[in-house]
Amino acid sequence: MTTEAKSNRRIAILGGAYNPPTIAYEKIVRAVLQKDAAQEVWLMPYQERAFGKFMAATAQQRFRMAELLAGQIGDRVRASEAEIARQGKSYTIDTVRELKRLYPDCEFCWIIGTDLLYELSDWKDIEALTTEVTFLGVLRPGYPVNAQLVDRYRVQLLLGPRLMPDVSASLVRQRLAAGKNMQGLVPEVIERYIEAERLYQPQTDPTSVQKEE
């Protein structure tokens, strides 16, 4: 994947934990491209966060999964380390401003699910953020479109059928930790990587092991 954006391009950012990226990620990216909502999509894993002592993939592993997913979709998609590389807590508005500084000839938009419409009021400097970036809204199961919030935050909805399958990364991790399979929940390239790296495998608390011994 190239590391430079082309001039006058509209770039859609899909942020997330990527811990791991589910089939919902792939479906959303393909929909954005097919609907010409953006010329490129950048997959941007969040900073390292506390996902659980025995459940978390490292930042490097999560970024690698983003890279693999980008490669599977096509040359209009790439992974970005913009948030992982930042020291300290990362806020969307800071990321957007940094991207605009680095790529002044590009227009950026941020992909969100309709569930986040109800959380945007808690985002740092949300009113300023709505002037810095366009939100692309995709439908998520259980979260109907709130027209008032769409207008308030200037969200551009991607119309059509439900775009985000009802599959969460936590469900994938829970199934794997319980020794179950992840078939149909993540793209095949991600499934192969998880198996090769032995991520999210059933674990035993070391203190419990010592007690049993």
Automatic annotation (TrEMBL):
Q: What does the record give as the reaction this protein catalyses?
A: nicotinate beta-D-ribonucleotide + ATP + H(+) = deamido-NAD(+) + diphosphate
Instruction: Please give the Pfam families that the UniProt record associates with this protein.
Output: CTP_transf_like
Annotated source species: Candidatus Wirthbacteria bacterium CG2_30_54_11
Q: Does the keyword Zinc apply?
A: no
In the record, the note on similarity to other proteins reads: Belongs to the NadD family.
Q: Which controlled-vocabulary keywords does the entry list?
A: ATP-binding, NAD, Nucleotide-binding, Nucleotidyltransferase, Pyridine nucleotide biosynthesis, Transferase
- Role: Catalyzes the reversible adenylation of nicotinate mononucleotide (NaMN) to nicotinic acid adenine dinucleotide (NaAD).
* Cytidyltransferase-like domain residues: 13-175
Q: Name one GO biological process term.
A: NAD+ biosynthetic process
Query: Which domain of life does this protein belong to?
Result: Bacteria
By its UniProt entry, which Gene3D superfamilies does this protein fall under?
HUPs
EC number(s) on file: 2.7.7.18
Q: What is this protein called?
A: Probable nicotinate-nucleotide adenylyltransferase
Which pathway does it serve? Cofactor biosynthesis; NAD(+) biosynthesis; deamido-NAD(+) from nicotinate D-ribonucleotide: step 1/1
> In its keyword annotation, does this UniProt entry include Transmembrane?
no
User: One MF term in GO for this entry?
Assistant: nicotinate-nucleotide adenylyltransferase activity
